[in-house]
């Protein structure tokens, strides 16, 4: 403090700085603590919305058009079979010489199908979208036993066709030596 300066000026200046900092922190924490809907959707949310719209279009294109309230696991299976025609994964048939071969040496005429992982993820997104649109969990057609069994069959068949196992290996516990 210099000569002739009033000490109360420093105290007042420090008090204003502290008050300003406190107000800034309070404004920041109240702003960040308030939940705001995101302006941009995550890639997952965007894909879920596209999948939901695609499924709705599929239901409306049926003859006669089908309402969501009448949709069952059988309709979901029809939708999955319909999507199977647009797949990008080579799935060898049992008559193919490359059935069970992970990396065949040359191309074969076997069809392209939806991979099990893609179908499983799709059903998961549609299951969530159904509930977000007011559907009850116990009436969710994407959670039907037939759909789960179909996914399991697709997974097992594709694993055999590609010579790959989806079975989880149990981790061995490290032995402790004394």
TrEMBL record:
Q: Cross-referenced Pfam families, in alphabetical order?
A: ALOG_dom
Per its record, what are the GO molecular function terms? DNA binding
Indicate what this protein is called per its UniProt record.
ALOG domain-containing protein
What residues does the ALOG domain cover? 43-170
Q: Name the GO cellular-component terms.
A: nucleus
Q: Which InterPro entries match?
A: ALOG, ALOG_dom
> Is Glycoprotein one of the keywords?
no
Provide the organism lineage as a comma list: Eukaryota, Viridiplantae, Streptophyta, Embryophyta, Tracheophyta
Its main subcellular localisation, reduced to a broad class, is nucleus
- Extract the PANTHER family matched here: PROTEIN G1-LIKE2, PROTEIN LIGHT-DEPENDENT SHORT HYPOCOTYLS 1
Q: Which organism is it from?
A: Nepenthes gracilis (Slender pitcher plant)
UniProt keyword annotations, A-Z = Developmental protein, DNA-binding, Nucleus, Transcription, Transcription regulation
Family, as annotated: Belongs to the plant homeotic and developmental regulators ALOG protein family.
Q: Does the keyword NADP apply?
A: no
Report the locations given in the UniProt record. Nucleus
> What superkingdom does the record give?
Eukaryota
| Swiss-Prot/TrEMBL GO biological process terms | mRNA transcription; response to light stimulus
């Amino acid at each position: 403090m210099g000569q002739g300066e009033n000490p109360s000026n420093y105290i007042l200046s420090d008090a204003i700085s502290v008050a300003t900092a406190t107000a800034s922190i309070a404004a920041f924490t109240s702003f960040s603590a308030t939940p705001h809907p995101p302006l941009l959707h995550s890639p997952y949310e965007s894909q879920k919305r596209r999948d939901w719209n695609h499924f709705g279009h599929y239901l409306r294109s049926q003859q006669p058009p089908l309402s969501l309230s009448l949709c069952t696991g059988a309709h979901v299976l029809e939708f999955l079979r319909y999507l199977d025609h647009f797949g990008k994964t080579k799935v060898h048939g049992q008559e193919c010489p490359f059935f069970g071969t992970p990396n065949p040496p040359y191309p074969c005429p076997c069809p392209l199908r939806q991979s099990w992982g893609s179908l499983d993820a799709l059903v998961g997104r549609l299951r969530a979208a159904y509930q977000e649109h007011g559907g009850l969990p116990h009436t969710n057609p994407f959670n039907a036993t037939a759909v789960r069994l179909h996914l399991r069959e697709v997974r097992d068949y594709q694993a055999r066709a590609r010579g790959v196992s989806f079975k989880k290996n149990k981790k061995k516990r490290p032995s402790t030596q004394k």
